[in-house]
Amino acid sequence: MPQLNGGGGDDLGANDEMISFKDEGEQEEKISENSSAERDLADVKSSLVNESETNQNSSSDSEAERRPPPRSETFRDKTRESLEEAAKRQDGGLFKSPPYPGYPFIMIPDLTSPYLPNGSLSPTARTSNKVPVVQHPHHVHPLTPLITYSNEHFTPGNPPPHLQTDVDPKTGIPRPPHPPDISPYYPLSPGTVGQIPHPLGWLVPQQGQPVYPITTGGFRHPYPTALTVNASMSSLLSSRFPPHMVPPHHSLHTTGIPHPAIVTPNVKQESSHSDISSLNSSKQSDAKKEEEKKKQVHIKKPLNAFMLYMKEMRAKVVAECTLKESAAINQILGRRVSPDPRRRLRRTVWKPESWYMFSWVTLVHLLLTFQWHALSREEQAKYYELARKERQLHMQLYPGWSARDNYGKRKKRKREKQQAESNEHREYFPNPCLSLPPITDANTPKKCRALFGLDQLSLWCKPCRRKKKCIRYIQGEGSCASPPSTDGSLLDSPPSSPSSVVPSPSSKESKPQTEQMQPLSLTMKPAHQPLHHPHLLAGPSLGQLENSAAAGKTPAASSHNGALERADVSSSRQPGSSVASSMARPSAALCHSRSLHPSAAPQPLSLVTKSIE
DNA sequence: GACCCTTTGAAGAGA
DNA sequence: TCTCTTCAAAGGGTC
After folding, report:
1. Where is the composition biased (Basic and acidic residues) (predicted)?
2. pLDDT tens column, A45-85
3. Which residue has the higher pLDDT, A456 or A323?
């Protein structure tokens, strides 16, 4: 494992205390060894669903009665302990701090750094670039002293008014507040602004208002339900289905009532404003349009628990930082800390675009605060219950509807199939160069055009599609081509884990690439103003990467590629910065030399997406 | 403008 | 029964 010299005091920041943010793969390695814990988690989750199914109309009190004795630990606790154990095995005791759920290795920055917005640097403090921040979860909240750290994206010292600090009594970890009766983040159409009904208004028949108004938009219509929900539930439902459209819960209509899930290709979630404007048009034309729309009606799938959670929390995450990319936000919200290996193997493939830049404080805070898997049992149960009700209502409204009806309405992702095929090939023709696609025939390299033909253009590597030099052909010539980024090509598969270079004592066998460390990682953002603080980064096994590179273990270390040059533009030739690059993109560091630009120093204070391409 | 990314969960299809 | 695939939301990014 990482050649972390915890007390060496070398120029790589050996004094730095690292937190081992285990990636899924290694977590799963641990998990596989502790299958009982995994099963326990799975049982907990399934029991949540079961509870939701069985307790559909029960009050919270009765739920509490039927619920098994309170578990001594929440998901967060289990996650943390799981990661902690994995880290112990992995680092052989080098790591003194238990890991946090999330991501491979986070270097604790020197909070006194002058490069930090709130840093007040003392000269002596510089000798130790990082301070141990993460403590045992049972102790003081590790972020407590750091929470005042702020940057342009994250201002924990000034929690937004919507997010009150709610400290988990068990872990001392701030928890997001329970959904308010009215979430300020639920999208309100312009026409509905200022018309926010009482959150429980839908439970009470509203006089003078059509119970099932039919708007021209064809959705945002009443969502009949006989189910009882609490205030949080009602707020969630209201988010999806405006309260004034949610009928009294004793009024169950099952026929002919449009559902919010109904979407026509041309109109989406129209507001009441559009309703008003539609009144200006003639009735006849409206009738014709509606008929046309009915023909194009698209009944969407009901949202599952996680989708409901995401829908609610996304806005809060956005409020916490300036990150707006849904992909990144979704990672924060949903990345598994203790994933089911089978699920992750087939679906979690980290793209190079996933290397978002986070300040580590921001990342840790967001993970601890918003991660789905860090929710307590009760909190998750709430969303499972809501999702169950959604499905129930959906079934009542559209008895004949099948999820299959929507198949094919989105373009099928051929890339996944290509990826799978590529992986199969890789087993037979492993490519030594990072995660390059398989050399289908190493002895007779062919360009994509010759290999796949014009009719299979989608299988071509990206350079070929752009009429540039074929990377596969380059491979055939024996060089290690630069990865052309995504599109089912080179970097789609997670890069090699550092453990593949320096085998971990606990790693008994090579793991598939998808199980290797390639998480959401802390890296740096190129900035005009140099920020020579190498320890604001997080990433995998920096010392390991550095050592392997120094030992000449890096394959194809001399090959350059523009993508990596751009990706590493945040690096400098300073050891720390090059480390940063390695940490940020371990696989790249393993296979490619760094193009270092002294003028392009990292700026770790923003969340951006790196486009490798 | 279509599609991708990214997440979990539900559901359908096929082996 | 198990595995795989697709689709739900979301908005910036890519082509």
Report:
1. 19-43, 63-91, 285-294, 417-428
2. 666 666 655 554 444 334 333 333 333 344 445 545 544 44
3. A323
What is the CA A256 to C1' C1 distance in angstroms? 37
Q: Looking at residues A90-115, what average pLDDT do you find?
A: 33
Distance CA A71, CA A62 (A): 17
- The predicted pLDDT at position A77 comes to 52
Protein-proximal nucleotides of chain B (any atom < 7 Å from a CB): 2-13
Residue nearest to nucleotide B4 (CA to C1'): A487
Note the helical H segments in A34-172: 35-54, 60-66, 75-91
**Partners of residue A231 on adjacent β-strands:** none
Contacts of A155 (CB under 8 A, 6+ apart): none
Whether residue A14 is predicted with pLDDT greater than 70 in this model: the reply is no
Q: What is the rounded CA–CA span in Å between residue A28 and residue A348?
A: 13
Residue that is written with structure tokens 């972390």 in the block: A4
Give the CA distances from residue A388 to residues A179, A207, A382, A383, A576, in Å, rounded to whole numbers and listed in that order. Answer: 18, 29, 10, 8, 50
Helix or strand holding residue A173 (H, E): none
Residue closest to sugar C1' of B12 by CA: A404
When computed from its CA atoms, the radius of gyration of chain A, rounded to whole angstroms, is: 26
pLDDT at A43: 59
Whole-number Å distance between alpha carbons of A6 and A21: 16
Tokens of residue A443, six digits: 């002895």
**Long-range contact list for A159-162, CB < 8 A, 24+ apart?**
A160/A319, A160/A320, A162/A316, A162/A319
pLDDT band at A331, cuts 50/70/90? confident
> Separation of CA A122 and C1' B6 in angstroms?
41
Question: Within 7 A of a protein CB, which nucleotides of strand C?
Answer: 3-15
- A32 Ramachandran zone, left/alpha/beta (phi>0; psi -120 to 50): alpha
Q: CA A401 → C1' C10, Å? A: 24
In this prediction, residue A427 carries a pLDDT of: 41
Contacting residues 241-280/A vs strand C (CB within 7 A)? 261, 263
Question: Is the Cβ atom of A397 within 7 Å of strand C at any atom?
Answer: no
Confidence check: pLDDT of A370 > 60: yes
Q: Is A28 exposed, middle or buried (0-12, 13-18, 19+ CB in 10 A)?
A: buried
Q: What are phi and psi of A19, to 5 degrees?
A: -105, 125
DSSP string, A193-225: TT----TTGGGSPPTTS-SS---TTS-S-----
Tell me which residue has tokens 């009806």. A405
pLDDT at residue A459 in the model:
58
Distance from residue A325's CA to nucleotide C11's C1', rounded to whole Å: 6
